[in-house]
## 1
Amino acid sequence: MTRLTDDYLWWRDGVIYQIYPRSFQDSNGDGIGDLNGITARLDYLAGLGVDALWLSPIYPSPMFDFGYDVSDYEAIDPVFGTLADFDRLLAEAHARGLRVILDLVLNHTSHLHPWFVESRSSRDNPKRDWYLWRDPVAPRSGAYAPHSGAGSPPNNWESVFGGRAWEYDPATGQYYYHQFLKEQPDLNWRNPAVRARVYQVMRFWLDRGVDGFRLDVLHAYFKDDQFRDNPPAIGLRGWDRQQHLYDLDRPEMADVLREIRGVLDAYPERMAVGEVADFGMAVRYVGPHKMHLAFNFDFLRQPWLPRAFQQAVQRYEAALPAGAWPCYVLGNHDVDRFPTRFGGGPYADARTKVAAALLLTLRGTPFVYYGEELGLPNTRIPRDEIQDPPGRRYWPIYGGRDPERTPMPWDGGPNAGFTTGQPWLRLNADYARRNVAAQDADPASVLNFYRRLLRLRRESPALRRGTFRALARRPVEALAYLREAPGQTVLVALNFFGWENTLKLDSPLPAGAWRVRLSTVPGDQARVRGNRVTLAPFEATLLELEPNSP
Ligand code: TEU
Ligand code: CA
């Protein structure tokens, strides 16, 4: 594998690829992707040019939230394989220079986790305090009181997935808190025994050679110690109709970030990336003694306008303290796929290439969600095929997350080569054309564009580590920026629209000869003159300043 600088650090200089294991590759014909399937596709991933894989949860789970409800943190769900399969996957990945990070879901467990089974068994069980149990309160007049004699829930907190966040447990006469489904009770992070046990889980995987973790809903570990009501907000669904002052992002988090970092720092080159709810946390949760990375989800909400993206980058660059490294994503298993979000239609692939060129040339670690490298769009899922719990609950206001979780299309054969059985979720409707084999054979495909971008990024110190400088203060239809490292200057120019655009820069470009390193336009001669850059429709171009040019 190419290693051009001595100080290469995989999670900072590399690109991380998210796999949703149910949907990547089935190896045994049950219609559900599994670990051996992933192992069989490692050559594809190494050839793509990514540096690390993040696997969404693979632990034993009753699958109420498809693995985000864990019933044993130190084993593998039989649907996905065995620990031996996992060890083999890890060894084979490492042999190809690919790191592997696991998804740790530590805000909550499954309601079938033995810890919760014990906790709910009696009020004096030693594990009672491992979860958040509260007495009912006297029903306020007109207030919600679901159980006769049970009073009302302890406060007004809502579940992300709908309804109250409190579930009454008649056996012991108390409510327990669940920020997501009632099958996902929240752990009590104030309890030192919980913390110690959870850090032991981390060491279990680190000792096996896992390279790090994606920490699910890291922002929610602590709830207000006084369980105060959230103030109201304007929104459509219950969760959105409150300001989350008291059920997220509590001050106690600082100590836990330090503790988690301490666990990781006992091993060489391990990392954690936090899933956090907003931009403020994406900035506050990273840096020395905190997380290595935290997802900045700004791009998931941007309209397809260069200025919106540029502003998102600039506010991030300005807000991150020294020693904190940026992190960008265009999609994941919870949000609409970006080709659909950015408008779909006949120009979707052209836009996808522009978006990919942006994601992979910013200063920060990019995450690529499986299928993005094919320009995979959302797939419409008929109501009777909906699998995702919030989709079932909120249809038709919200159809759930199945549309962005459809199986990876590998070839044009039956079920796209994903399975020999019946896929758990339908494939993209255009899989006969949109699949790995077909795009592999087409030099102009989205896949081959990703490969070239990833190769260039890996070879380029400016793209990996250089500074970021936007070249026009108010870009309208195209975007241009410089990435500069000692000895290398790269100009990235992106036309967001389907007509020619001349971008006027605030000041002339550094003088010299600009050589095209990569372009969506074949044989491109990039027109850079003074303070003007002219771009063809949907052109994405990377130019390098010839080092010895006058
Ligand atoms: O997601 C956290 C979360 O709150 C949202 O992304 C949520 O899934 C979305 O708003 C849908 O309504 C994480 C995981 O990424 C997600 O898949 C899990 O379902 C959730 O935590 C619970 O573990
Ligand atoms: Ca399988």
Note: The first strand starts at residue 16 and ends at 19.
## 2
Amino acid sequence: MNASTSEATSDLSFKVDRDHVGWLTFDRQGASVNVLTPALMQELDALLSQLESRIANGQMLALVIESGKEGAFFAGADVEAIANLSSAAQAREAASVGQRIFRRIERLRVPTIAAVDGACMGGGTELILHCDYRIASDRSSTSIGLPEVRLGILPGFGGTVKLPALVGMQNALGIILSGKPVRPARAQRIGLVDRVAPSARFRSAVSEFAAEVVSKRVQPATPQLGFAQRLLERTGPGRRIMFGAARKQAAAEVGSFYPAPYRAIDVLSSAVGLKADAAYALEATALGELAVTPESRNLVRVFRLSQAARKALPPDVTERGRPVEKMCVIGAGVMGGAIAELAAAHDIPVVLKDIEQDALDSGLRHAADLLRKAAVARVFSDEEASLKFALITGTLEYGDIEDADLVIEAVVERMAVKQQVFREAEAATGNAVLATNTSALSVDEMANGVVRPGAVLGLHFFNPVHKMPLVEVVAGPRTDAEALATGFGLILALGKTPVLVADRPGFLVNRLLAPYLNEAGFLLEEGRGVEDIDAALESFGMPMGPLRLLDEIGFDVARHASREMASSFGDRMTPSGVLDRMIDDARLGRKNGLGFHRYQDGRDRGADPTVEALFAKNSALAAGPAASASDAEEVRSRCLYGMVNEAAHALEEEVVDGPDSVDLAMVLGTGFPPFRGGLLRWADAEGIQKIHDALTEYAGALGSRFAPAPLLVRMAEQNRTFTDLN
Ligand code: NAI
């Protein structure tokens, strides 16, 4: 037996064990995850030369590639490096270099085995695709994916070449176009991994697997295609149908806003039958083109902002918070039930308290329902869903919460009730942080009456909680650092992205939405059609138009919020009369089936033709039956410029720390189109002077609500952009 030998560079180490199996371990120094930086790729390249000579000398019979970070295989390519690419040629070259290095692994003259324990994304997936075998652990975080299209690019290190060869074209299309990761069981079914092993004894399972490979007791998987799939994938007409369907699906999902999925389909379809070199070259060229599109630049930017928000506590949160090991949610309504579910889904025991048995029952049902849906979506198993549900205890009494680390109230939006609830909660707990989910009330005022006002902060979740990634963390003037840090820690533990906001009316997101939604009302009163207003903003990329959004929010809730905004900010937030008119007509939005659209059995039945009649008296102002393109342009400008203007007011009041936070919050909190990079990045691209001039003109023609904010005026005078302010 040879003694094992080992070599280590900074992020890569290599050793050969007694069975002549080489172990190549990625372990990026000083980082919690492995990322394929250009420097790491170079190290790998150099190490491969050594491996080749060892193999030539007969010193190694197989190579295992693993991560030194338990439960975290590879986070993917280096987003920083993608952001720094300055030209299509440079991006193409970077892809070609990566491809060349990975193809060296493919050509090693010993069997290669990737041992995947934890998430394996992007470039990491392309790395393992160039190995002969893949073994994955059954850990809940283990998954394999190619999320590149979400950054506006496509896999560029050979993913589009290797994946279809391994799992068939249809599966490859699904994985590349959705960007969604594949869990181990499915990965094994489709041939993406050869074996799944228990994470508790993963390393020894990998050794055993390597021994089987060396003794030729296993063979690499070949794609297992059924008859219909073979017909689709292996015949010209079949492929035309398959790629046609993929294009249709892309059109339905991303419309014309995102070029990457279409380009990926082109690359995959053009590569069929090509020699490997040509297929790799096609991929590199397409990556080069996509990496410098504005869409990709903006998507990468938003991704980096959200990573940064999830990494660092804001500078003024100095003390570490305590981990939340038990929490209490008060109010089991729409929000409370969903927050309780979120906590339980992340294995935090929760006491859910209400004052009405019916409300409590319905909150618990809501939580159970969400957990069941997560099980159906295979986020976890049915059994796990039941275990998680058992973490929620429903109650009508305080009790059993003295050891809760954090209480969050989600009771009715009334100051006196919330103050009372905080007093009761403080008395029933020892030292808990007291959080409120209020959307509009003052956090500081809510702290009046408690013994520890420093323990009070806002954690503003968005509806629906399980889908919306943003939580506004509201710091009142008296909120202490421990409460803030505890709040931040909890939001991160719940998988959400926190943005720190000041205790000002509407915080950030609802405040910026107010002029946008109000303006849709004014436009309707002027006689514009429901469909025209919504279409103008949907064709800009908003997930739904402002009127459909009002339907979702509910007119009573929206009216309450808009009145609050008007009382805080005066004239510029004075709402149109549309919500009053709709409520007078017994319409509440989606919740009672009657909004700007009609809803039946939970389904949207389209714009309600009777709504426009409610505002018909003003139709003389309308553009006529067919709305023109310039009309759509005006709808869009009035709604969006108002939002930008309000952002300028909010920045001046230091509601957030800068334009980056506005952009991140608006993308994550309202679905502002990420391919536009966020509200203020878009405003910069649109032109500050142009927005300023339009606002001035609207202010003259339509009302002082459009008067440009002082910050915007200064920016226009000094020819500055929001980007300059960061
Ligand atoms: P909801 O009306 O669905 O639920 C409120 C629940 O609180 C009810 O079950 C009620 O029985 C219970 N409750 C009332 N007084 C109580 C007390 N003293 N002790 C315990 N429970 C009590 O309200 P929803 O929509 O869940 O809103 C709750 C809070 O979340 C509000 O502050 C609201 O502004 C905020 N919010 C609501 C959003 C939404 O879209 N619904 C979005 C973000 C925040």
Note: Confidence is low (pLDDT under 50) at residues 1-5, 619-625.
